[in-house]
Amino acid sequence: MPDRRSIGVGTLLRGRRPEHVPRAFWHRLTPLRYAAYFYLLGWAGYGVFYVFGQGNKIIALLCFLLWGAMIWLCGYVPQRIDRRLHRGVEASGYRTCVNCGYSLRGLPDAHRCPECGVEYSVAGLEAAWKNWYASK
Predict the structure, then answer these.
(1) 88 is in which domain, residue-wise?
(2) Ramachandran area for residue 45 (φ above 0: left; ψ -120 to 50: alpha; else beta)
(3) Orientation of helix 57-91 relative to helix 122-134, angle to 10°
(4) Of 11, 89, 101, 131, which is least packed with CB atoms within 10 Å of its CB?
């Protein structure tokens, strides 16, 4: 069974969703991925200026510390998003679309998600979400 903690910084930066990760969770990480890309680009750019003598050692140290903060955020923010999504999934009785995260409460047991159009069954949704949250 896949370990859900296997979503690391490298996985986030690659941008390809691992098979065991629900799309509803993965799409909520998009802003974090873009922030990491831009920060990495900015830090690399400053590193080039520093190497060629245009930079300041204090700013280089600050960039290094901020790099550590970004790595910490890439570990902390997904956990927070996961907890929030888990509360919503449990509140809906596991009737949440695995593809887009839309709450399917009040809809028939086998239907299409009105948000993204993916077919679902309540048994399939419950199994998918319980599998995701059981893989601690």
Answers:
(1) 4-134
(2) alpha
(3) 140
(4) 131
121 membership: H or E segment, kind and range:
strand 119-121
For 89-120, write each residue's pLDDT tens digit: 899 899 999 998 899 998 998 889 998 999 99
Give 120's strand partners.
111
Judge whether residue 11 has pLDDT over 80. Answer: no
52 CB-side CA count, 13 A = 6
What's the N-to-C CA distance of the chain in angstroms? Answer: 10
97 within 8 A of 120, measured Cβ to Cβ = yes
Q: What is the mean pLDDT of the chain?
A: 79
d(CA 126, CA 128): 6
Amino acid residing at 35: A
Please report, rounded to a whole number, the percentage of residues in the chain having pLDDT higher than 90.
12
User: What are the residues whose beta carbons fall under 8 Å from the beta carbon of 122, sequence distance 6 or more?
Assistant: 94, 95, 109, 110
Closest CA to 78 of 3, 12, 126: 12
